[in-house]
Structure of Adenosylhomocysteinase:
Amino acid sequence: MSFDYKIADISLHEAGRHQIRLAEHEMPGLMALREEYAESQPLAGARIAGSLHMTVQTAVLIETLTALGAEVRWASCNIFSTQDEAAAAVVVGPQGTPENPQGVPVFAWKNETLEEYWWTASQIFAWPGADEDPSKGANMILDDGGDATLLVHKGVEFEAAGGVPSAQEDDPEEYRIILETLRKSLSENPQRWTGVAENLRGVTEETTTGVNRLYQLARQDALLFPAINVNDSVTKSKFDNKYGIRHSLPDGIMRATDVLIGGKVAVVCGYGDVGKGAAEALRGQGARVIVTEIDPINALQAAMDGYQVAKLDDVIEQGHIFITTTGGKDIISAEQMSRMRDKAIVGNVGHFDNEIDMAGLAATEGIQKIEIKPQVHEWVFPAGHSIIVLSEGRLLNLGNATGHPSFVMSSSFANQTIAQIELFAKSWKSGYTGEDAYASDVYTLPKVLDEKVARLHLQALGAELSELTKDQADYLGVDVAGPYKPDHYRY
Amino acid sequence: MSFDYKIADISLHEAGRHQIRLAEHEMPGLMALREEYAESQPLAGARIAGSLHMTVQTAVLIETLTALGAEVRWASCNIFSTQDEAAAAVVVGPQGTPENPQGVPVFAWKNETLEEYWWTASQIFAWPGADEDPSKGANMILDDGGDATLLVHKGVEFEAAGGVPSAQEDDPEEYRIILETLRKSLSENPQRWTGVAENLRGVTEETTTGVNRLYQLARQDALLFPAINVNDSVTKSKFDNKYGIRHSLPDGIMRATDVLIGGKVAVVCGYGDVGKGAAEALRGQGARVIVTEIDPINALQAAMDGYQVAKLDDVIEQGHIFITTTGGKDIISAEQMSRMRDKAIVGNVGHFDNEIDMAGLAATEGIQKIEIKPQVHEWVFPAGHSIIVLSEGRLLNLGNATGHPSFVMSSSFANQTIAQIELFAKSWKSGYTGEDAYASDVYTLPKVLDEKVARLHLQALGAELSELTKDQADYLGVDVAGPYKPDHYRY
Amino acid sequence: MSFDYKIADISLHEAGRHQIRLAEHEMPGLMALREEYAESQPLAGARIAGSLHMTVQTAVLIETLTALGAEVRWASCNIFSTQDEAAAAVVVGPQGTPENPQGVPVFAWKNETLEEYWWTASQIFAWPGADEDPSKGANMILDDGGDATLLVHKGVEFEAAGGVPSAQEDDPEEYRIILETLRKSLSENPQRWTGVAENLRGVTEETTTGVNRLYQLARQDALLFPAINVNDSVTKSKFDNKYGIRHSLPDGIMRATDVLIGGKVAVVCGYGDVGKGAAEALRGQGARVIVTEIDPINALQAAMDGYQVAKLDDVIEQGHIFITTTGGKDIISAEQMSRMRDKAIVGNVGHFDNEIDMAGLAATEGIQKIEIKPQVHEWVFPAGHSIIVLSEGRLLNLGNATGHPSFVMSSSFANQTIAQIELFAKSWKSGYTGEDAYASDVYTLPKVLDEKVARLHLQALGAELSELTKDQADYLGVDVAGPYKPDHYRY
Amino acid sequence: MSFDYKIADISLHEAGRHQIRLAEHEMPGLMALREEYAESQPLAGARIAGSLHMTVQTAVLIETLTALGAEVRWASCNIFSTQDEAAAAVVVGPQGTPENPQGVPVFAWKNETLEEYWWTASQIFAWPGADEDPSKGANMILDDGGDATLLVHKGVEFEAAGGVPSAQEDDPEEYRIILETLRKSLSENPQRWTGVAENLRGVTEETTTGVNRLYQLARQDALLFPAINVNDSVTKSKFDNKYGIRHSLPDGIMRATDVLIGGKVAVVCGYGDVGKGAAEALRGQGARVIVTEIDPINALQAAMDGYQVAKLDDVIEQGHIFITTTGGKDIISAEQMSRMRDKAIVGNVGHFDNEIDMAGLAATEGIQKIEIKPQVHEWVFPAGHSIIVLSEGRLLNLGNATGHPSFVMSSSFANQTIAQIELFAKSWKSGYTGEDAYASDVYTLPKVLDEKVARLHLQALGAELSELTKDQADYLGVDVAGPYKPDHYRY
């Protein structure tokens, strides 16, 4: 075998390859980039450590990155989200065989333990020879949720401190495992992460949560390299978050439960982009949607869009379906779950599983947990009634369905690819000294690149774009080729 | 083993039992009927030959029928639609074990051949001792699509003619198999079906297609027993057809293809109840929906609902998704499929698989068929482009998803149960001689029973019904308890 | 002046003529009938007494009837609904002048008193010479709400009884006026209405309310001539009621109040066709819609369409807008109005003004009524808060807007025209003796004529109808030219 | 009479006062500000020159400004948009009489000429004594579209140049009038505008168009005082533009034409906030909506929302209704109008009347213009067909309806009021020297003030806001009291 990897079963590669071929058709943005950059190979020399759900769509992203010249190592950013056949196909590669894989090293399989998860996260930095010579290691991170970036920053921090602290009593279980992972690392090589960080030119980050962490680091002047906030490209946040969830939320609920959504009362916690997509999908299926919000602007939007805006406590007995979309925590408490209707469905499409108080639920005295099928559990309260929790409170659209569909991921991933190209070339850590060099701060992509991503997807939908005349463009004070809007424009 | 049956794997019964328990919660209509009739046992003495998709929901129906006193034998009405764990659970019964099944004889498994299918159809009439003494056989049919009813009528016809005719050259393959099945039957017992028919008090029929056959028989004075058209209860046709498809169509497309529906052009052939539900679901997912129709009234409804109404030929190059909902035939031709966009998705939620010309597609010179996964096939035209056909042109909501969800089936099946009670008691063949006896004709349920079915489902949705005062009812000229509308009212 | 009439101001005729010309463009059904029957003149010899809102659209209907050969006299069926310029234009006629009107005698103006209203109703039967020779009088009625038909039936009844009874204490004010009108008539000619009834071949009735009256008469064997129920043509009830209200309800609310509908809580009482259109319109404007219903089937439809279904009392404090759509009475009581939010808007698009208890409201102690503008009144409760009542509780879409738009009226009125043609030719009172002669009962139009009306409207919308092949039609058991559906089909 | 003003008819003041009282109920944001600042009087000393549509809602704004201590002079920013009764009521004031007006000087009436319009614009700067002592003049501008700001800047420019240039041949008619207005001003007082500008502390601007002008000035370092861009407050741009148009567009079309929107093909040019509201409103009325766009991101949004995206030329024959929403120019050409369907409706809700080429239309050889009613014209092409143009191509929601409803204006105007308070206190020209002083640049309001505006409107809708716990807020890294989102968040 030509390289190390760890996946579920490499023999699944053919099934994966079929799916990749179909997904490519639904990812016109990535395919257009492959064509545009076939010759110039802007990622030649890039060694990308990728941490993002190892799905079929990600496979098309990975193969786009390599088509542009990059070398890649990959892990999933979620213990449940890997599609094993996609992992297998990426490892084998389009030209390889299971015996002679010619693809990309992947460290991901469906249903990892947390220990395994953090091991895979460290493996994407374990480039051959890098421990000895950091310049042979990763020089780019492509991150989703910020775990890869976190590992590097914590590693550097503890290496500087000369050791890994003990976990505190109230630290979450997962943080103990991170500490353990790093403790083992420092014992092997006490300067590993310092070397890794040195060599990194930058990170491109996919999600709100990861982006928030980056802005925190930047505010604390602790960011070790430049970052591009891909999440806030319009063609990411307003597409993936909204239109992706619109598709994958009902998909997940339907696959998990086969329960009719029509006629039911669905409570959507949060009315950000994800919540907007969730509410639209549920209404589109004939549910009556109630929204909870803490932000008065979003709350007013929900009201103006015709939804009831209520406090969760006031509608806890009414809902048949409860969906969290917030990125916050403790959105639904165990006590609230105990007051829901019999067989109410509870699921999360926000970010972490702490949006729903799963720990509190499990700690409820006398509660019984029955597995209906994988990722679908009935929690029976002592009083006899029960609720159905999807994907253990983790992202149900990934756990119970297959995540965002290819087309929206094409938009997100075209942003990722363009961001990798930008940062690989123009990070100050690339030695680039132009005025537009990226410092160790957090950036969004220039609007004209955002518009480019949109443009790449219109034709596939049969949408015909109009063109400004020079005269009209002058009247508006914009260029015929864009960008067309001021930066503060909200779409 | 206490009785004969043929299912895939009886050991699946526990999984099925779990699902049945959850489905019961979503079928408030059936559960209310169990409660209402627990004591009176109105189906005591009924022996029901059932032919209807052997799903989890049907399991709840079957166990409702037995809870009301009936004996039951069951087959599926579609070769793909059986959920094997549901069949196993019904065979075993709530109190039985695989070794000592105490449920209902079922003859159904996923993926039957057509020969097997027609064998199972004959088995629901093969009651122990019935061949010798027809009065021990089935006295009721519960039918979906009319195959069980067809078998009896053809059997009687051929037995009267003294033999089964040869198939004609242009007879469909399936008809040859029916003839073969009956030829074998006549060779075993030349008066079997005559005896079966004699003993039958009536049939309750689920679908448009089956109902159309019944009306044809009635017009030809060839109907051998009374029939209740369950399909045209408002709480069936306007609920199951419309709201069921609204759920199960996107479910099927999503599970089959994972392709984003949003932004795509979806062509819905037909704007009857099924088409209305399909169009609403696809629009609810952000697709642009184009409707084709032959009925000017339905076409005008589609236009007034904001859909483009076009001829299929005029939009064949535009569509990304094509769905037939008509109950007709040759709605999409092979030639039209060859002109579709690359990777266009083609599926049927109407009735038979001849809505899409699958035979013509298979006969296209140089075409190649690739199985992406079960029930999802890519057909590659010689020119290189391909289309994705779901469920081989059969009902995709059954083949690629799990059919209508429990809640809508509760409404349909509450109608079925009430219709079985009506007909078992009041068929002229039951010896009933009241003025309201059912003759050998086709009937719909009285409106007040239709309203009863609706009433049984409101509470579960949290819907609060208002009540007329006596004074208001008098003003409207109706009874406080209903029925509230004239028979011609269209809802 | 060549004939008697009574309208507001004949000089408005030019403005009316402009509007009629524009309305003709929006009434493709009527214009197509003018073309189709230009030569055959199927209404030659018909003398039609018309009682229907005297709007611009009705003007196009009247001129269609005359274009087909009829003579016509017209009154409005509502004291508020006349558009004075339309009345003027119809009186003058396309070729006439105010000095030499060549149109149709009209007795209608905006804001009639009830006494005037019933006088106009009697005038449409006052054909020159008819009092002496009833055969010179009206031979057809075109009715909306049944007032013209009521007048004839009551007249005949009292003439047979030899006198008009006194009003009872609890008779509504309006009934006293009817009695007074007839008392005067009997004193002039004690056999007038008997003669009128004798000469009438039939009535075509527009609305649910009028149709209900006709069915009551038929059940009592008291119907004096055949009736065609135009209301229940699909292209009437499912178009005019639903799509007309969808347009004219928000139109009326907006013109009356300029209050933002978006974000508000709108309570729609009733979910029949009118209620469905109302709910859709209000949701389409971003309101949160709550439905009240007494029919469990309609209630279930509302729930499945995603609306909250509640009892009015439970949501009386929540609503910003309350709309009655029922055709019933006492839907909103004065006491309930007193509990509404300050400045809640209350209106009716059902039938009579007794849906909202206006009498009770006016009788509330200490209440104050302020006219904001014509047809918009603020009722200030002694406690200081107030509600806004539209059109005094009468039809707000007529009183505050201009009623259904031309296009839906084209559909309704094409049914009216076709029904007049049918009945004029084939009433038993026409001397017609064919098998399909209309007896003194209530009929709906044959489905194929209903389909014809739809067909006449498709092209104007750019909708392209598909056509069945002979083979497909045979498969479905229908004729290529229709009708396509069984009579019980609900659309 | 206590002050000079020019309005249509002061006797209309009572009608206006009624409407203002009702509007106040629908403007909870402004009423809450009156309460909050009743005591502190933050605008005491402010002399505001206001240029904004003189409607009933603006009357509530004006009286809010005076309730906070300001003195005000007002003109409309559009020649058609004044509601005369609102102007009258504002002039008279709540306590005044026509003989002794105690309100605010207003210079606005419905249907001004362009000459009159620019005269009114100059009157809002003509404070008593200001010509002699500029410090007695306006110290704040409240602007909509930027005309008041333009007048000041052009005045200063020409005064510095020592004279007003001649109009160029291709200058628009309106520009000639501006030049003429200033020429007259310079002849009266050659330093008037220089004095005015000196004394101004800043401008708060309502619309995209005005804001664009401000950013241009700022880029050229030509902005004479600070500006707050109210347009881009979320609670302005995403509410007024979107939800306001959703209401007032169908309102305008319905009042103008009474044409059924349902079933029609509506072409919406532009899919910004205004276009989104327009498309939603038309779809909500059952129209089939086609969108044209030049920005690929907005185009992709339109496609994902289920609309057809096309070039105008490709659908010019299909549309029944064409609406421009762009803020650009020459969106619909005269030649395109000549190819539309007979009686197609054409209207603009963008900004200026040059979105539709009205000049080109008028110049079409042989064209005939018929006034159907005020603001509704039929343009008959020589070939015989015609189109209906609303409001002469100016804003139809103002010309044919009454503009945005009070509730959305409450949101916009609460932003205006807060911006006036901010700028009056903290402009560098106020002598304020804090770190957060506003320089002569363009600013948007701090997000927490934007959230405040939203908060002020929730209760009136019955929306219940949830509250973060301290723990949840810390987790998100925000303050419990907000702001909740980063500045780049798009809502």
About this structure: Residues 234-257 of chain C form the longest helix (24 residues). The radius of gyration of chain C is 23 Å. Chain C has 19 helices and 15 strands.
